[in-house]
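HUMAN:
Could you generate one sequence with tokenized structure?
ASSISTANT:
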Amino acid sequence: MYYSHFGLKDPPFKITPNTEVFFTGSNRGAVLDALIYAITNGEGIVKVVGEVGSGKTMLCRMLQTMLPEQVESIYLANPSVAPEDVLHAIAFELQLKLPKNADRLKVMQALQTHLLKRHEAGKQVVIFVEEAQGMPLATLEEIRLLSNLETKHDKLLQIVLFGQPELDENLNQSNIRQLRERITHSFNLAPLQSNEIGEYLIFRLRAAGYFGPHLFTPAAIKKLSNAAQGLVRRVNILADKSLLAAFADNVYQVTPKHVQAAIADSEFGIEQSKIAAKHHKFIMWASLLALGLMLGFLASNWQQKQPVAAVKPLEIKPEVKADNTADAAPTVKTTPAPAQVPPAVAAPVVSTQNEDILSHRLAVTQSWLANQPPSTVSIQLLGANSDAQLKADLERLGQQIELDNIYVYRTKVKDQPFLTVLYGGYANRFDAMQALHKLPAEIQKNRPQLRTIAGVLQETK
């Protein structure tokens, strides 16, 4: 929309990870080089920690493209996988053919045999585990056992854990100390500093085809930096909306006014405004308390200097206004987004039909789970952290596969509500795998995984 206005060929601030615009500033390039070294030298388990939106997924994608050809990588993205299912999930990613109803021991033997063959062929295998902070500790321990697969000189499997700071908290628990002791390298993705954000913005603009002077004024960069708190995803969101606001004003440089409009239009901007309001209210009451203490101290001194008979207790009464405005939080003024901003920024309207689909599938699933044997195997298609998102997903899935075989249940990931979608119920993993391969190609792109009902029930406790 605003691309031609600023002389851009491509969207400069898409939040989808694109390895062609990997920013090596801050410590990103150094962490990437260190990860490549650790993996190619067989350093066992490696950990990468960063806040939400700090660029962990981009780093993981970049790592996959930069590793030497002899290194094969697999990707485990489901944080809620149960301990008894994780080995099967890894075997599926490695495309291993397992016998029907293969138990844990047989899966482990198949994994070891496969990894030994890859080692003999001069290959290394690395597994990337995303959102590791959301995995049950028992699942992390199950993954840790895979690090025991080794020859006399080399590890057969390298493991890289990507997670939020809560991962460190989980690893500090005593019952997971064996995994913590196996971690040979730990890396932290620090937030971008204000000067680094300016470099990042112009880097992305240049990559999108821009050749002029910096589009963001120094004051705009500072304001954007304070709001984004150094998180790359937030920087991208605010930068995109700021450019849109400048385009609506028909100007060719982004000023603090445009950044403020972007902040006001962002969820985290609203959250920060609430925090700022609470902070200002706290400062106001603290100031009133300090003033009251000072007046009390002065009154006490004055009282001691007067004759006893002449002393009258000093009574301090706070002024109370009839309209209760003294209790109101100070108003935080924000500049509204320009009226010319296209309505595409608005959230999509979800039909009530979708609400009926979700409610119905939740009710059906509750009864279905209660009547399934624990050994039943289902196919996990996808997950979502909001009802609105899942309603849209269900409408799309209903056009590709039969809705009666779709099941939805609620759980929590990192203490946040989460919805998981299953498809079908099968007597064994072989039958489930056959059904998985028959799913439409668009659904298979999401890398569906096999789940046992026992694992699902344990997750919903």
In short: DSSP finds 18 helices and nine strands in the chain. The first strand starts at residue 45 and ends at 50.
